Amino acid sequence: MTPEPEAAPRPTSASPFVLEMRGIDKRFPGVHALDRVDIRVAPGEILGLVGENGAGKSTLIKILSGAYRRDAGEILVDGVSIAHSDPHRMLEQGIAVIYQEPALALHLTVAENIFMGRLPKRGFVIDWARLADDTAALSERLGLRLEPRARVTRLSVAGRQMVEIAKALSREARIIVLDEPSAVLGDVELEGLFRVMRRLADKGVGFIYISHRLNEVYQITERVTVMKDGRVVADAPTSSLGPDDLVRLMVGRELGDIYGQRQENTGAPALTVRGLTQRGVLVDVDLDVHEGEILGIAGLAGSGRTEILRAIHGADPIDAGRIEVFGEHVRIGSPRDAIARGIGLLTEDRKADGLLILQSVAFNTTIARLDEVRRQGVLRPVRERTMVQGYIDRLSIRTPGPGFRVGNLSGGNQQKVIFSKWLHADCRILLVDEPTRGVDVGAKHEIYQLLRLLTVRGVAIVMVSSELPEILGLSDRIMVMRDGRVAATLDRAEASEETIMHHCTRPAA
Length: 509
Prior knowledge:
Number of domains: 3
Number of helices: 17
Structural class: alpha/beta
CATH superfamily of the largest domain: P-loop containing nucleotide triphosphate hydrolases
CATH architecture of the largest domain: 3-Layer(aba) Sandwich
Number of strands: 24
CATH topology of the largest domain: Rossmann fold
Largest sheet: 6 strands, mixed
CATH class of the largest domain: Alpha Beta
Strand content: 25-35%
Helix content: 25-40%
């Protein structure tokens, strides 16, 4: 059976740190990405690493993993300098990096992904029974719910992230970097991850925890390092910095009321759903949202939140249900039908489903409504650039121009490009799934302002979010999902984190 993950034995060293990065410097053409950055992690310490998108966090972690070469500086593990780092060498040193976007072989099983390159054998043949047993035992000890023989392609985004975590922990890593794990994990799964982290920290494993969700930083970290513009601007015990202090250090300004003012006057019913049913997923779901209103959908991972949006948008077939758009009964069999009815969908996984990463900002903005930039089937480049530049200016998209590749933008700016796509398509109903997933606190503020602006213009918004403060701060009404059913619909005045969680978790009658 697979042994419980333990800290790998460390060589005797006078250093009090399992990891030190000293004076790390990195330049790209026209960009000084890292400027003499120092970080350190003691055995058993959980270090928070925070900063806006573009602050240099990802570049620093890619240098630590061996994916990038540093221009200057030194990396020490247990006080021993690592002269030449590459991904294989850093894995041998016990450094595991779990990125926000899982890097898995989707056609293989959970067990095969976790033990890839280390599959148990009986003679020259893979011992499949032992592989499944080892994976099940590992999952149980780590508190993760993983089915060893399940194909990864069938897992949710959250499920794939848990496979990545199990894979790293199975290697007995001594330094584990978690890059925005909560971007794809629900509250229950995240609490399970925190339990595993604390247990491993007690055994000497060091962690670097990267997150834009400050409540998590306070919940799990002991010390926090703040980066801005490629430099470390603060390094202190987490308890010594309040949330306002962290925000000010990260963005260089006060943000004030981050959620903005709620729209007081809503209009006519925009979207009405009755009896929406998808066998094994959704059961008899009803919802209503009006012009100028934000309906928030809360629930644990697997409760059916995302599936509601996909079903309404025609991305997944339904078995029963009636959909009305501005009082008219409509049949939506595909996303094309939904777009024609003025319904846009901002997906949970923007890189896989929301954007064409290798294409330009302009292409991604106009793709849902090409007639506006074509004449007799021929693209009009000047008109396209002019229209897209207008969206860039209105939404404050930080890009060198309309022709810039969208995959090279930060997460927050990618999300704003998706908003520009649906604005260009003249959508009056927006289905928004995790609108601020993986974006920094400054970009969150801008996205919240954009959502508020859309409601002022009469757009009806249905928003799924795993962040309860976001649900409470933005929503006019809140629908709580549990096991594919509507557990409760709450007015904003009667909703709190406690009442939402009560409806999320109470046993079915």
